[in-house]
């Protein structure tokens, strides 16, 4: 089977078509939001919120509610707002607020499922992601979250950038920092919820961090970092879906492994470029020293008696 056949063959299955669309869009969305999260030093929040959603999953299982819309949706937004409020108003850092609220939510979910629920296919899909059973409603929901995210970045670009790099200066400049942070947290929670279908609770945090970190290695421009991160995330989603199909493993696992491979490659390339630049700088310095040394040696030095 050649490359073209390998790319076309899975597309004959409708479940793969939908999974590929969702994975590609999910990667781009997580890449965009991940830039803000990473630069704020809040990489742990993606891990925390994705686990907090598990409590919503358990509650939805109990009340026979739709997982992504009612249970996890309300739970995720409430957890995000609680983290933002506690970290700003109390004398604890954001990392501590994330740790307390999200682990408590996750523990509650485990307790509810252990007592009243049962492990099944939906449980495994929520944890590790699955391309099976993706509905048209979920695709449109993901697209809606994507549009909301892009609109937020376009219309609140300066406010988000100021609060990301220096919230004190942003506050002094008239930016409503608390409202901007709350808006970012809500969009983050909705993005996590919308992407859990393919990537899963346990792995979605990795795709928030990896594309943004790789983009930061490539460029120091904030606007270009957003573009690079979205592109890398969508590429990881696209390639990871094909690898998942042929390897027969959960989609979230292969998407994250693809991202990890991209990160390792970027790290090697950056290390090689740094070594080459150092060697060039050293050679240039030696060359400059060699050009000036004859003039210095040709001068007559005064003799001291």
UniProtKB/TrEMBL annotation:
Q: What is this protein called?
A: Unannotated protein
* Record-level GO BP terms: response to zinc ion; transmembrane transport
Q: Which PANTHER family match?
A: ABC-TRANSPORTER METAL-BINDING PROTEIN (PTHR30477), IRON TRANSPORT SYSTEM MEMBRANE PROTEIN HI_0360-RELATED (PTHR30477:SF13)
Q: How does it sit in the membrane?
A: Multi-pass membrane protein
Q: Could you confirm whether the keyword Membrane appears in this record?
A: yes
Matching Pfam families: ABC-3 (PF00950)
Q: Which residues cross the membrane?
A: 20-39, 51-76, 96-114, 126-155, 182-214, 253-272
Among its keywords, does the record have Membrane? Answer: yes
Q: Which organism is it from?
A: freshwater metagenome
Keyword vocabulary terms for this entry: Membrane, Transmembrane, Transmembrane helix
One GO cellular component assignment for this chain's record is: ATP-binding cassette (ABC) transporter complex
Q: Which Gene3D superfamilies match?
A: ABC transporter involved in vitamin B12 uptake, BtuC (1.10.3470.10)
Homology family = Belongs to the ABC-3 integral membrane protein family.
Compartment annotation:
Membrane
Coiled-coil annotation reads none
């Amino acid at each position: 089977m050649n490359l073209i056949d390998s790319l076309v063959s899975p597309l004959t299955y409708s479940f793969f078509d939908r999974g590929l669309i969702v994975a590609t869009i999910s990667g781009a969305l997580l890449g965009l939001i991940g830039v803000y999260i990473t630069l704020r030093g809040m990489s742990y929040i993606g891990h925390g919120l994705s686990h907090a959603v598990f409590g919503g999953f358990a509650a939805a299982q109990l009340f026979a509610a739709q997982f992504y819309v009612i249970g996890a949706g309300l739970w995720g937004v409430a957890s995000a707002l609680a983290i933002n409020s506690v970290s700003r108003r109390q004398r604890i850092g954001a990392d501590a607020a994330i740790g307390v609220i999200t682990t408590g939510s996750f523990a509650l979910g485990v307790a509810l499922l252990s007592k009243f629920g049962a492990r099944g296919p939906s449980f495994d899909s929520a944890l590790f992601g699955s391309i099976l059973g993706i509905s048209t409603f979920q695709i449109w929901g993901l697209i809606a979250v994507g549009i909301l995210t892009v609109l937020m970045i376009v219309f609140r670009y300066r406010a988000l950038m100021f609060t990301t790099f220096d919230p004190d200066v942003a506050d002094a400049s008239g930016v409503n920092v608390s409202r901007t942070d709350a808006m970012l947290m809500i969009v983050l929670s909705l993005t996590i919820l919308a992407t859990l279908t393919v990537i899963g609770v346990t792995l979605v945090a990795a795709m928030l961090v990896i594309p943004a970190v790789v983009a930061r290695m490539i460029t120091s421009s904030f606007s270009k970092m957003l573009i690079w991160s979205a592109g890398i995330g969508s590429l990881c989603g696209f390639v990871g879906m094909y690898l998942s199909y042929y390897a027969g493993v959960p989609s979230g696992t292969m998407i994250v492994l693809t991202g990890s491979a991209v990160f390792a490659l970027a790290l090697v390339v950056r290390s090689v470029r740094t070594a080459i630049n150092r060697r060039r700088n050293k050679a240039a310095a030696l060359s400059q020293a060699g050009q000036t040394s004859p003039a210095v040696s040709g001068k007559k030095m005064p003799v001291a008696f």
